[in-house]
Amino acid sequence: MTLPSWSTRFEHDAWANRRILAAMIEQDWTTGEHGATLTHLLGWQRVWHARLTGADTTGLADFPAPTRDLLEQWVQESADCWSAYTANLTEADTATDVTHTATEGGEYTNALGTILHQLVTHGVHHRSQISTALRKAGVAPPGLDFIQFMHR
């Protein structure tokens, strides 16, 4: 069985982020609780990208209050940085151990593929929270499934 490449998985992530943000904009939900949820998702993608590329992570986990402009910027930045990061990633690369310092100070080692999997599933989790809130508000959430992305 061949799984989709990490590049394809992160393309889906970017597509789903754009779709959920568009639905949030329609409902004027880019601030407050729902904006904070998307800020959290995108903020941790920023932290992990910095960790994986050796950039300074100081202050990155202190997420600002959500605004429409911030979310639009972070959705685009996330798409761009993960597209570039995963473009030439090999399966051998994903088996490489990565040691990082967590925000609370502990040091951990995980395979790169495990970290990438966490990022993708973390996004699904939080977009699902927003989708559920949309449905509870009587609004049909956008389709975000991977197979829908592949059939677009």
Describe what is shown at a glance.
This protein is mainly alpha-helical and 152 residues long. 64% of the residues lie in helices and 7% in strands.
Please describe the topology of this protein:
Layout (H helix, E strand, L loop, with lengths): L5 H21 L5 H22 L14 H19 L4 H4 L2 E5 L5 E5 H25 L9 H6 L1
Antiparallel strand pairs: 1-2
Helix pairs in contact: 1-3, 1-5, 2-3, 2-5
Overview of this protein structure:
The protein is mostly helical. The chain has six helices and two strands, in the order H-H-H-H-E-E-H-H. It has helices at 6-26, 32-53, 68-86, 91-94, 112-136, 146-151; strands spanning 97-101, 107-111. The protein has a two-stranded antiparallel ribbon with strand order 1-2. Strand 1 and strand 2 (107-111) form a beta hairpin. It is globular. The two termini are 23 Å apart. 24% of the residues are buried.
Uncertain runs: none
- Major pleated sheet: 2 strands, antiparallel
What sort of overall outline do the alpha carbons produce when their principal axes are compared?
A: globular
How much of the sequence lies in strands comes to 5-15%
Mean pLDDT comes to 96
Short descriptors:
mainly alpha, 6 helices, two-stranded antiparallel sheet, 152 residues, 7% strand
